[in-house]
Amino acid sequence: MYNVKSKIAEEFICDSEIRDTLQYAVANKDNRELVKEILAKARECKGISHREAAVLLECNQPDLIEEMFGLARHIKHRFYGNRIVMFAPLYLSNYCVNGCVYCPYHAKNKTIRRKKLSQEEIRQEVMALQDMGHKRLALEAGEHPLYNPLEYILESIKTIYSIKHKNGAIRRVNVNIAATSVENYRRLRDAGIGTYILFQETYNKANYEALHPTGPKSNYAYHTEAMDRAMQGGIDDVGIGVLFGLETYRYDFTGLLMHAEHLEATYGVGPHTISVPRLCMADDIDTADFKNAVPDDIFFRIVAIIRIAVPYTGMIISTRESQACRARLLELGISQMSGGSRTSVGGYVQEESADDNSAQFDVSDHRTLDQVVEWLLDLDHIPSFCTACYREGRTGDRFMTLLKSGQIANCCLPNALLTLKEYLKDYASPQVREKGEKMIRRLLSDIPNEKARSKAGEYLDFIEEGKRDFRF
Known about the structure:
Radius of gyration: 21 Å
Oligomer: single chain
CATH class of the largest domain: Alpha Beta
Helix content: 40-55%
Distance between the termini: 46 Å
Strand content: 5-15%
């Protein structure tokens, strides 16, 4: 029985509701009147239901698809402007006890080199990331009770926050680790994490269990209910996602939106971010073994309709995707992306070689952070290194209230310009610095509030003089 407010996985992610939704979508895919009604509702920028979103995804009429793309661009610009938040993953360890058949970390893989960073090695990695210009990290680690206990994660977070190298500092540490207990989520909250991220991989229970034959992650309910426990543990910024390609995209698209609806209905705030990774090649993993690959044209529609369905939620794309693909996705809803990423353990200090592979997946976009920043500037996007909302306590429903009211623009735009200015002064190449300074001068006048605009100009002058870390 489907119950959006239930805290039981099989009730808020209800298989019969998903299948009924998909049947409804197929039955109405050519119903132009209904599609138009859904798009009209979506233009109010308050979101649409998973069933309405499934109808949009099933619709194959070219003019209506273009209308969806245009609406996604409008919604993204309304809430996030042309800001793109930058981050990098930091892989701490690839030791893992799970048997996930799509991940090279799986316990039976004997070809991948197992590595775990010491605290000193973490310091070296973080300084390398700071020297690139990063301020926001996403911690990644395999699930292993002996090699990667929570104490190791907590110690690593403390180490990361403690490092002040030149003008660098990591100001927000997001954490993507295995599902855990309410008490452990409290400990992560107390350690000062930003967003807790956990991908569901797939919402189809039978397929989930087949893909996770062994290890703690094989428990579908415990994994699916992790965000409920995180919320109960006081973490109100959570990030969800699926790995598109493990299950039919229609099923996981619907399940993903149902999960977002569940969090909103139960806790008053939906996911802070939604990630949309696609299955890709990796050590010991061949994508040809999986039959549900998602082609680009469908993937673009998925991203656009997620943006329409959950307009307030940040959307993340990683370096799994190519430069061309990421450029298209920027226009359709993406608000966060990684740059200069390494998916190997210790990969920022020492680039991995073919015979020393510890990476989780193959990277498609190999550009440096400075090259990505220049590319974004050329596309008229603002590369933002902002972490202000987290540090000012604007998380969970407090962040969403500001976003929905439109008041967040008086914080986000100036903060984006201030952190871009820091990057330009400390890390950018001369040509990137010139382009970025030109953008800052042009966009300063776009800050809606006159007082905030004046203060931002003052802070920019302070940064030019060598001072750092101003925020609204």
